[in-house]
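Protein in question kept in full:
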Amino acid sequence: MSEKLDLNVIRQQITELDQELLVLFAKRRALTLNVAKSKVQQVRPIRDKQREQELLISLIKRGKDLGLDAHYVTSIFQSIIEDSVLNQQAYLQSLANPDIQVPTVSVAFLGDKGSYSYLASHRYFSRRAEKIVEHGCQSFADILQQVESGQVDYGMLPIENTSSGSINEVYDLLQHTNLSIVGEITQPIEHCLLTAVNTSLDKIKTIYAHGQPIAQCSNFLDKQRDIRIEYCDSTADAMAQVAELQSDSIAVVGSEEGGHLYQLHALEQSIANQNENHSRFILVARKAVDVAEQIPAKTALILSTGQKAGALVECLLVLKEKGINMCKLESRPIQGRPWEEMFYIDVEANLKNFALQEAISVMAEHTNFIKVLGCYPIEHISPTNVPSSEI
């Protein structure tokens, strides 16, 4: 006869083991910071991809001996490696910019608590500050004004989405600000249909949402019959209204994580047009930052070539000749100057890099206007690859 299992005892054992794991994770993180400190003295790159790959292969083999699935082990340690890289980068940046390291930061973002900009702000500063003073705004222009006037330290702005593309209003505003881009973060966007009360999809008559989620969930929304779309200034505003109305006939498009802050629950999950839906945010401040040499960096440029034939091509050829990778090119019309456009270019290079400095100098000869919008660490950490033969 098999021994009777006590579920409460088992759960207590799991809880105790989870607590032990947290202690081990903290010890590992402390060791990776020591790695970062050693790289300060030797000026070595943050990532050693060969070392990461060898580590994962070794862990996968050990995991198999313990009865653990290779994909499970890979997923866990890819997250641990990402956390290690980001923490090392944050540490090196704190050394490179000692005058801006404070325990409390104030951040302006679109909407209120629960908005995607709110979530991105908290995620970005989770490893950089002990406390965040939140300033919800009703427009992108308000965010820039709050930072420019010194009311807040930083502004978080969505710049592009993998589903709906570039956010043109933000690009237009960047033409007229003296703020610098000092950081970036890519936030996974998991759109759900949220409600305040238990209901069913056939009862929904009105859906509240911000314009961006509406565009990103157009396939799902187009299939709904006799439903009115109510546009809101932000996702947070939409969630707040649905929470207040407490109706079984209304819903909101937003994240399940943000919805929890308003006691909303998911009626439908994963309603975005694309399964892999991410938004890239930029962080702006009054003062530019220095990027440590060991950290992969991006530099954002803005330029105008007027109506000179081939001028943009000449600029891009300069980047090619200098071996500088361009990762983003966006054009926007210049207000008050018909048929002229402003070009935004992101390159993967540190502004301290002599090749980039030379490139900017040569590009200036082909432009009417050129300006550096900012140089900042690359925040997106590509997962460590493991050969399929090892999985």
Summary: The CA atoms of residues 26 and 32 lie 10 Å apart. The domain at 22-97 is CATH 1.20.59.10 (Chorismate Mutase Domain, subunit A). The first helix runs from residue 7 to 42.
